[in-house]
Amino acid sequence: MLDPIITKETLIFLSRLEKNNNREWFGENKKEFKTHEAQVKVFYEEVGNRLRLHDEIEKVKMFRIYRDVRFSKNKTPYKAHFAGSFSRLGAQRRGGYYLHIKPGESFVAAGFWAPNKEDLLRIRKEFEQDASEIREIMAESGFKKIWGALGGDEVKTAPKGFDKTHTDIDLIKKKQYVFVRKFTDEQVLSPNFVHEIDEAYRAIRPFFDYMSDVLTTNLNGESLLD
């Protein structure tokens, strides 16, 4: 059985949707959208199935095409992309996976998008105490080749209570801890795309394992789990 793929027709539809982002056009083309959505959902499910071979995944969630415009300046009613997440199972497995499909802007991401204030403080305190292990993980050649540098929003100088001259302030001042890998349309349309996604997700595990250990222990290394 052939692996599911993202088709050129799906990318073309998303491009058309971006140019005609209104309810009238969408209504006229909803049947075609549903066809693409069903195909892409199969692709996301396959990504989830592969993830389950090397991680424990609680759920695969493909996001709806409809935008919540209540608090947004952008009032276009639809997303011109497909997106979904893969949630890790259990309190001891932290971090999450994300897959975004959009013409010219497709990417996978992994990490911590919105850590709560307790988790964020715990991560910062860990890096304040010793950031050597996380730096070793990020510097590993295979990891770096696939994921590049750590991304995420950050404060301008230093969080309250932290020294802005600290050696590891570049890590401490982050508000998110996220890695992103971009893909060209040619890569997205390749029969190997699902394999490339899975390869990237496999490569992120040392980061997840380390961060999960940090977030489930105190600074003395004692477990916080019951």
Automatic annotation (TrEMBL):
Entries under InterPro entries matching the protein: CHP02453, UCP028451
Pfam families: DUF2461 (PF09365)
Domain of life: Bacteria
Protein name, as recorded: TIGR02453 family protein
Species: Zobellia uliginosa
The organism's taxonomic lineage, starting at the top: Bacteria, Pseudomonadati, Bacteroidota, Flavobacteriia, Flavobacteriales
